[in-house]
Design goal:
This protein is mainly alpha-helical. It has one domain. About 75% of the residues lie in helices and about 0% in strands. It contains two helices and no strands. The longest helix has 26 residues, at about 40-65. It is elongated. This is Spore coat protein. Keywords: Capsid protein, Virion.
Length: about 70
């Protein structure tokens, strides 16, 4: 069976999204260290957790793996 591949522009778009998500994740982690409000810190942690899930999905798309369940 032939493995399907992403088109060049799809690969570049996915790579760019992954880069943006990585920067946002790092920024949220950094800001958590200087925030004193617990509610805001919890929101930042939720953002970090969701970003990790999103990044794993983008990596799966980038390498074009079949989803595992």
């Amino acid at each position: 069976m032939k493995k399907e591949q992403l088109a060049f522009h799809e690969t570049m778009d996915t790579h760019e999204l992954l880069n943006v998500k990585t920067i946002a994740l790092l920024k949220s982690k950094l800001i958590q260290g200087v925030v004193f409000d617990e509610e805001l810190r919890a929101l930042l942690q939720k953002n970090v957790e969701m970003s990790i899930v999103d990044m794993k999905e983008l990596q799966r798309i980038y390498t074009y793996e079949k989803p595992s369940k």
